[in-house]
Amino acid sequence: MRGRFAALGLLTLGSALFLTASPVCADLVTTPQIQSIASTKTNFGVGTVSLLGQNPFTIKQFDASKIVAPAGQVAVLKGVSVSLAYQFQNTIQLTFVQAATQTVKASGVMHLGLNDVNHPNDALGSVTHDIVNSPGFATSKTLSAPSQVPTGSPGHPFNYLDPVKNVNGTSSIFYTDASTLSVFTGSGKITAPVTATAQSSFSSTGANGVGGSSTFASATLSVTYYYNFVMLVPEPTSFGLMGFGAACLCVVYRANSRRGDRATA
Hints:
Blueprint: H1 2-20, E1 28-29, E2 33-41, E3 57-60, E4 73-96, E5 100-112, E6 136-145, E7 158-161, E8 165-175, H2 178-184, E9 189-192, E10 194-204, E11 209-231, H3 236-264
Antiparallel strand pairs: 1-11, 2-11, 3-9, 4-7, 4-8, 4-11, 5-6, 5-10
């Protein structure tokens, strides 16, 4: 009989805990927020006139009140996926006035930051921080004229225009830490400014010559929220089952204690 009471108590407690526990299921996913900046000549940033209204990106926070949850449950943000698709388009140009060897080196980098406009004192909001790894590019071209450059008309310089080099890819990070999730949680918006800069250097063995590069960059931001549902409070039924299960275990414990006392008497 005591064995049956113990089994019943454990079974009841297990059922109560199951009912009060959060459902075990795969995270649900919100529709990605996607915004883009078309190919734009670097250097560009928040103050670039042609990008006003596009940069910085504006992201809606995860608002649990907008998620339809089962009765007695609430949506809780579990992770944030931030993805930056980028492309650099770089072209190198060399102009020779006389026989020489010239070199142009070019490089660039893109930054995606984060400002929490609703919580300016937040660690991520007071200063703009990179929220993905900063992509970049580096390239160079060295040529000697006239041997490596098509000959121009007499008295005219040798010109060389390098084919456009495209550097593209995606930089992504998945956040699950509480401090970052708190920035993305709320009923307002946060901003994500983008900057793209490029520079070049020129060197020549001759006295006369010109070299440089032209760089354009584009960016597409995608932010996706991962969430699931948790119970607000245990239901009354669960409390009743927990009480009944505990009572069964108490009965078994007291019976075992009495039996032990008689055995030692």
